[in-house]
């Protein structure tokens, strides 16, 4: 195995920009273990003369915190607040009417359906690819490993064009996915490819192979070993990757805008519906469906976080 | 887990076949389509006035967004790692928020805040156009790239601790000297990695930017908008392939840089 090509650190980093839910919790716990103790101690044990100097380093002045709060508010929080207020500007009933309008429901349904299919396919193929990259050995493995990150690096509109050049109207292999749900699925599979692979890979590298060998020596077939020993170890990572892929897929726009065809009730996804509502000057509808889409994404990430923290607790208990 | 040779080969073929059909073949086809009419045609297509001004606009947005993200990202990372204040957990969550928000929703949110009828609509009515202007595109790009620098610098700050900074300060260095001489050199690779991610995403952002741009060729069209407009509005399929290939080339360069930086960072 070429360990440096797919060392767990590298894999984790390449996935980090988009894999969020678990990490901030982890950051928080790290902070309490090193930072707090240090800051507190230096203040407590320092002699009166050196206290002011030392305190300057370990802490952040209120000005810094004020700047950060203001920055995050103006860039992130205020726009989302304005969105939410706009969604409810005609009251709860107005919000409900906008979200349950037939075209809106249809778009949300197509989005969730297609994203769920994509997430499930990813769970299988992602695990398979991770397994091949970690446990198998062949020429060009490093190259294949590098290709996995390509969909993250490629602009989404380029992904759209790339897929159209093969599966579009002038398809050289005569496969026409343009303006079909299959087109949506292929586009979303392309952009979500790295999630499961990159979350399973490091776990598989760390996995204890002695347990597997023990199972095999006790007479378990390789399928039984996989099902009873390997899969339970990988399950949290697979679930987290699948969930992130789903969350990404429901909000995706650039990769589906050209290949999807934007046919209402057929291939129009929620993000396209929202964009259309803005274009025909129905901002309240756009805001309401946006809030619904956000709610689905947050619910997904919340479930992931709860599952992750439960797994972590179980591991700590076992350890 | 011991797998028979037959199974192993089957799994390998299935995995590589999947990647081949999903990634390798489409990219091969687009490269072939972009370069088949000859290099001169390709260059002509990506150097039309509209294409050049799109590249310039994309670079201008990056030139504005990167310094802002660097300054505020480092301050945010410092506050989150070193600060002990109420609401810190909340700020942590807010930093992650942009990853969970669809680009289209980012665009709609910005319209609701900065648009003519938005909360800050007075700014627009006073003659300073935010939405459908450069400021809107910059705000959209900052929204989607905000987490990168923070999240890449944060772990490094955790790792280095505060001992060296305390030593510097004990030896008489002031805040700025400590920052420039101790903190900044220590976080430089994490920061660079964050900047590379920011550049890649800023260059490739489409959904959020198309919502807040007027999309006029030569005026408010970024490279990604150019690809879209050529395909949809102009039915210039070749032009779209060529522009997409250019963007892909830049993306590959960024990917290469990321791999190199990652190696450098792990070596340290």
TrEMBL record, chain A:
Gene3D superfamilies recorded: MetI-like (1.10.3720.10)
Keyword match Ribonucleoprotein: no
Question: Where are its TM segments located?
Answer: 63-88, 108-134, 146-167, 179-197, 229-250, 286-307
Cited InterPro entries: CysT_permease (IPR011865), MetI-like (IPR000515), MetI-like_sf (IPR035906), Sulph_transpt2 (IPR005667)
Recorded GO molecular functions are: ABC-type sulfate transporter activity
Pfam name, any one: BPD_transp_1
Q: Which GO terms describe its cellular component?
A: plasma membrane
Residue ranges of domain ABC transmembrane type-1 in the record: 108-304
Q: How does it sit in the membrane?
A: Multi-pass membrane protein
The record's annotation in NCBIfam families points to: 3a0106s02, permease_CysT
Recorded protein name is: Sulfate transport system permease protein CysT
Automatic annotation (TrEMBL), chain B:
State how it assembles: The complex is composed of two ATP-binding proteins (CysA), two transmembrane proteins (CysT and CysW) and a solute-binding protein (CysP).
Where does this chain mainly localize?
membrane
Which part of the chain is the ABC transmembrane type-1 domain?
55-259
The family database entries (NCBIfam families) matched by this protein are listed as:
3a0106s02, permease_CysW
InterPro entries given in the database record = CysW_permease (IPR011866), MetI-like (IPR000515), MetI-like_sf (IPR035906), Sulph_transpt2 (IPR005667)
* Role this protein plays: Part of the ABC transporter complex CysAWTP (TC 3.A.1.6.1) involved in sulfate/thiosulfate import. Probably responsible for the translocation of the substrate across the membrane.
Q: What compartments host this protein?
A: Membrane
Q: Does the keyword Transport apply?
A: yes
Record key words, sorted: Membrane, Sulfate transport, Transmembrane, Transmembrane helix, Transport
PANTHER family, A to Z: SULFATE TRANSPORT SYSTEM PERMEASE PROTEIN, SULFATE TRANSPORT SYSTEM PERMEASE PROTEIN CYSW
GO MF term set:
ABC-type sulfate transporter activity
Pfam families, alphabetized: BPD_transp_1
Name of this chain's protein = Sulfate transport system permease protein
The membrane spanning regions, by residue number, are 12-35, 55-81, 93-114, 126-150, 191-218, 238-261
Its cellular-component GO annotations read:
plasma membrane
Q: Which domain of life is it from?
A: Bacteria
Membrane topology per the entry is: Multi-pass membrane protein
Species this protein is from: Humibacillus xanthopallidus
């Amino acid at each position: 195995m070429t360990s440096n090509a797919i060392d767990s650190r590298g894999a984790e980093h390449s996935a980090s920009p988009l894999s969020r839910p678990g990490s901030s919790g982890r950051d928080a716990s790290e902070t309490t273990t090193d930072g707090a103790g240090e800051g507190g101690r230096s203040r407590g044990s320092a002699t009166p003369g050196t206290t002011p100097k030392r305190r300057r380093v370990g802490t952040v002045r209120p000005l810094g915190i004020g700047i950060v709060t203001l920055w995050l508010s103006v860039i992130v929080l205020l726009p989302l607040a304005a969105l939410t207020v706009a969604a409810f500007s005609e009251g709860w009933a107005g919000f409900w009417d906008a979200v349950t309008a037939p075209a809106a429901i249809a778009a949300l349904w197509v989005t969730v359906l297609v994203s769920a299919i994509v997430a499930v396919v990813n769970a299988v193929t992602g695990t398979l690819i991770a397994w091949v990259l970690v446990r198998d050995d062949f020429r060009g493995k490093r190259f294949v490993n590098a290709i996995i990150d390509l969909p993250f690096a490629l602009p989404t509109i380029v992904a759209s064009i790339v897929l159209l050049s093969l599966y579009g109207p002038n398809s050289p292999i005569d496969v026409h996915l343009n303006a079909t749900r299959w087109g949506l699925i292929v586009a979303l599979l392309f952009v979500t490819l790295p999630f499961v692979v990159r979350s399973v890979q490091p776990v598989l590298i760390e996995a204890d192979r002695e347990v597997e060998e023990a199972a095999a020596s006790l007479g378990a077939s390789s399928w039984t070993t996989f099902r009873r020993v390997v899969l339970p170890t990988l399950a949290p990572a697979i679930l987290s990757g699948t969930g992130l892929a789903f969350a990404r897929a429901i909000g995706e726009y650039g990769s589906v805008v050209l290949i999807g065809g934007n046919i209402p009730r057929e291939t129009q996804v929620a993000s396209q519906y929202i964009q259309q509502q803005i274009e025909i000057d129905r901002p309240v509808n756009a805001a309401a469906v946006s809030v619904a889409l956000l709610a689905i994404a947050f619910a997904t990430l919340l479930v992931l976080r709860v599952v992750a923290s439960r797994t972590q607790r179980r591991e700590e208990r076992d350890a | 887990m011991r797998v028979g040779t037959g199974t192993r080969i089957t799994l390998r073929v299935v995995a590589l076949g999947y990647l081949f059909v999903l990634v390798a073949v489409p990219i091969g086809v687009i490269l072939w389509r972009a370069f088949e009419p000859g290099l001169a045609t390709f260059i002509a297509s990506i150097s039309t006035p509209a294409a050049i001004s799109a590249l310039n606009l994309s670079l201008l947005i990056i030139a504005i967004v990167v310094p802002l993200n660097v300054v505020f990202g480092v301050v945010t990372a410092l506050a989150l790692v070193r600060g002990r204040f109420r609401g810190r957990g909340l700020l942590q969550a807010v930093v992650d928020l942009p990853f969970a928000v669809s680009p289209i929703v980012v665009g709609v949110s910005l319209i609701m805040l900065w648009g003519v009828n938005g909360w800050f609509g007075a700014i627009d009515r006073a003659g300073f156009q935010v939405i459908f202007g450069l400021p809107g595109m910059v705000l959209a790009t900052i929204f989607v790239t905000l987490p990168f620098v923070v999240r890449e610098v944060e772990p490094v700050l955790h790792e280095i601790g505060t001992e060296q900074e305390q030593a510097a300060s004990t030896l008489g260095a002031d805040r700025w000297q400590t920052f420039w001489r101790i903190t900044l050199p220590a976080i430089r690779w994490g920061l660079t990695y964050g900047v590379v991610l920011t550049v890649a995403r800023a260059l490739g952002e489409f959904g959020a930017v198309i919502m807040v741009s007027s999309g006029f060729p030569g005026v408010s069209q970024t490279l990604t908008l150019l690809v879209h407009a050529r395909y949809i509005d102009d039915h210039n399929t070749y032009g779209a392939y060529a522009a997409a290939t250019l963007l892909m080339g830049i993306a590959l360069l960024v990917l290469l840089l990321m791999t190199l930086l990652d190696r450098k960072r792990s070596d340290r």
